[in-house]
Write a structure and sequence with these properties.
The chain is α/β, with parallel strands linked by helices. It has four domains: 102 residues, 2Fe-2S iron-sulphur cluster binding domain, sarcosine oxidase, alpha subunit, N-terminal domain (Ubiquitin-like (UB roll), Roll), CATH 3.10.20; 183 residues, FAD/NAD(P)-binding domain (3-Layer(bba) Sandwich); 136 residues, Alpha-Beta Plaits (2-Layer Sandwich); 90 residues, Arc Repressor Mutant, subunit A (Orthogonal Bundle). It has 17 helices and 37 strands. Strands 9, 10, 11, 12, 13, 14 and 25 form a seven-stranded mixed beta sheet that branches. Strands 26-29-30-33-32-31-34 form a seven-stranded antiparallel beta sheet. A five-stranded mixed beta sheet has the order 2-1-7-5-6, with helices on one face.
């Protein structure tokens, strides 16, 4: 069977992994030792993992982060989340069709005694915030345990192939996310007081101050003096007909498959959401050789950085603002998606419906804090802190500062640090959390001699690595602020080293060199997509900042500095003097995907599934609300909304929205009663039984 793997990537290495065999519903297949089952199945073009017991609807991956249970399979006779369970040789995997049966075994089970591990600080989450907090604690010799449910540290950094914004000194600006994860891990390893537990899932916090952890198929109890919750965020979902079809999932799940596991999980995608997550996911898709037919955003403007949007536009991706997804069509998997334009009152405008043939729809409409552990720990009176997205949704660079700050706060609370927390840390954290600023007109230099960079970034965002790498120190930002736009102070001093071009996270800097031919200057363009498209002598379609074509030009030279700037190619072309300073990027998706047909109207929104676990629709929830229900717990009793395996992590925000849409004062709505455990866990683990001790 053909493997759907990414065998060539402009940024990521494609290491050779140990190939193992497994069976899927009795059919032999192959995968890589230790990769997640879900990725192994996707690589074998298996995207339906079972069918729901209620209506036989197909089930597939959704979050790929252990937050839901959409990817449940039976592996070696045990129900497991396929996105969190590693593959091994000879594994027998079956789809879940209907309700899984418990093993028929009445053998008495002896409950083992679970010892309690005492530690000064327990950190939940090994992402950017958790790691930087641990580094500050490690410097002071404070005993610390980091618990993370993945097989490596870094959190969402592991999924990021793009270069980070911020500053070089404070947040590794100009370095790619997965590389930052490695740098932080290497520093963690230098501190003997810090222990790391990987593949360890925190399942709950309890009134006696104990934190329960399922680690290596065993249950462990940890009693920390201080608890830091740095559990990140989960993606929000939208309610529309077809939203639960396999092929509709979060951008984070897509990045997990494509960037972490190098699985080519799609051919054509449409992205819903113009924040940084959606814009970056579109860029990652193109790097992986996947076509992005369009990115849509309900707001009049994209909410993410303009340079991220500009990169997509220059590659040939249409960005349609003021649009929403109406419905997704398909029998057992996504086959097409219908979108439409919105009016000023957020209503769909008739006769604006368009349908695209795609196999994947990525939802990137915002993130919600994974903060239930923090809330419960605070309720129980534990000395608990929060950092990163678990406290406030922001960029990873801001999360790194938040972790440093909370790390020192914890040290002060332990009386292990008597200094002050640097005031500039708070100031820098606030700057890095700031929303994109004003957009100005492009300021192209009038100069047409010598050599110099042209900066095509026109929006104020926290980013200034170009000022750090210039060996002549002639690049500054307005008012010397990290959010100021860059400019050249002395053009005569520029030697054309191209360092600022190579490091720019937004690929928004170019170099124009008039020294050899003033009428046909050499233009250097940063490029991070398919390398076979920019070989010497090939014609490339060069665009301006808005994606307008400037013409086709032969590649004169391709420069790659694998040591300093791995993954970024500097492509040089000679262009006419009239357009040279306007050149920014190289168009990749020359063939646009047109809508397949026009719809007069979309499907009824009442058909949309809100509770994915129990297959409860928006119409069922609206009916209950109109009959007077104002209690989430009563709603659960009536139609099981929120009763599923994920613990209402996905549906709860959408149910609140329906209450609001129905005119109910949210202050009058009774929220759900939280479960004691926030994550599913086999009963045998709580009893102290390791997998393999019994067949139960």
């Amino acid at each position: 069977m053909k493997q759907h793997r990414i065998t060539s990537h402009p940024i990521l290495d494609t290491p050779k992994n140990q190939v193992v065999t497994f069976t899927w519903n009795g059919q032999p297949m192959s995968g890589y030792q230790g990769e997640m089952i879900s990725s192994a199945l996707f690589s074998n073009d298996v995207k339906i993992f079972g069918h729901h017991h209620k209506d036989n609807s197909p089930q597939g991956i959704f979050c790929a982060n252990g937050q839901c249970s959409q990817c449940l399979v039976i592996a070696d006779n045990l129900p497991v989340k396929s996105c969190m369970t590693p593959l091994h040789d000879g594994m027998s995997i079956r789809s879940v069709d209907g309700l899984p049966r418990l093993p028929e075994d009445d053998t008495p089970v002896a409950v083992a005694e679970i010892p309690v591990i005492d530690v000064e600080v327990l950190i939940l989450g090994g992402g950017p915030a958790g790691l930087t907090a641990a580094i500050e604690l490690g410097k002071l010799g404070i005993t610390t345990i980091i618990v993370d449910d993945k097989d490596r540290l870094g959190g969402k950094l592991v999924l990021q192939t793009h270069k980070f914004f911020g500053s070089v000194e404070d947040s590794h600006a100009g370095t790619r996310g997965f590389e930052i994860a490695v740098l932080l891990q290497q520093e963690i390893e230098t501190y003997k007081s810090v222990r790391v537990w990987l593949n360890a899932t925190v399942i709950g916090v309890f009134s006696d101050g104990i934190v329960g952890v399922a680690s290596n198929d065993a249950y462990r109890k940890i009693r920390p003096e201080k608890l830091l919750v740095a559990t990140g965020a989960r993606e929000k979902m939208l309610s529309f007909p077809g939203n639960s079809l396999p092929g509709v999932y979060g951008a984070g799940a897509f990045q997990t498959l494509v960037n972490r596991d190098l699985v080519k999980c799609s051919k054509k995608v449409l992205i819903v959401g113009g924040g940084n997550v959606g814009l970056i996911a579109g860029y990652h898709a193109i790097q992986a050789g996947i076509e992005v037919v369009a990115l849509i955003e309900a707001m009049p403007e994209v909410g993410g950085y303009k340079v991220h949007a500009d990169k997509l536009v220059r590659l040939g991706v249409p960005i349609l603002t003021g649009h929403t997804v109406v419905s997704v069509q398909g029998s057992d998997h996504v086959e097409s998606v219908t979108i439409a334009q919105l009016d000023a009152n957020w209503q769909v405008i008739e006769r604006t419906h368009r349908t695209y043939g795609v196999d994947t729809v990525l939802i990137a409409v915002g993130l919600a804090e994974v903060n239930e552990f923090f809330i419960k720990a605070r309720y129980f009176g534990m000395d608990v802190f929060a950092a990163g997205d678990a406290r406030e949704i922001a960029e990873a660079s801001a999360a790194m500062f938040a972790g440093k700050i909370e790390g020192l706060k914890i040290a002060k609370a332990l009386q292990r640090y008597d200094g002050d927390i640097p005031r500039e840390w708070d100031e820098k954290a606030e700057i890095l959390k700031s929303k994109p600023g004003r957009i100005t007109e492009s300021r192209v230099p009038e100069r047409e001699s010598g050599v110099f960079p042209v900066f095509h970034c026109t929006q104020e965002v926290p980013c200034n690595p170009c000022t750090s790498v210039c060996p002549e120190n002639v690049i500054r930002t307005e008012k010397d602020l990290i959010t100021g736009l860059p400019y050249v102070t002395d053009y005569e001093q520029c030697k054309g080293c191209m360092a600022c071009i190579a490091i720019c996270p937004g690929l928004a800097a170019t170099l124009v060199d008039y020294r050899k031919d003033p009428e046909q200057p050499m233009v250097t363009l940063p490029y991070e997509i398919r390398r076979d498209k920019v070989r010497k002598g090939q014609l490339v379609l060069v665009t301006d900042v808005d994606g307008a074509w400037l013409g086709r030009y032969p590649v004169e030279r391709v420069i790659a500095n694998k040591k300093k700037h791995p993954g970024t190619l500097l492509v040089q072309v000679r262009m006419a003097r009239e357009v040279a300073k306007r050149a920014v990027g190289i168009w990749v998706q020359e063939k646009q995907t047109d809508p397949s047909k026009i719809y007069e109207q979309g499907a009824l929104p009442d058909d949309a599934v809100i509770c994915r676990c129990e297959r409860v629709t928006a119409g069922e929830i609206r009916s209950a609300i109109r009959n007077g229900v104002k209690d989430m717990n009563q709603l659960k009793a009536l139609n099981r909304a929120g009763m599923g395996a994920c613990g209402s992590k996905t549906c709860r925000p959408m149910i609140w929205r329906i209450f609001q849409e129905e005119g109910v004062d949210l202050g009058e709505v009774t929220d759900r009663v939280d479960r004691p455990l926030f994550v599913e866990v086999p009963l045998g683990i709580l009893a102290g039984i390791r997998r393999g001790d019994t067949d139960a």
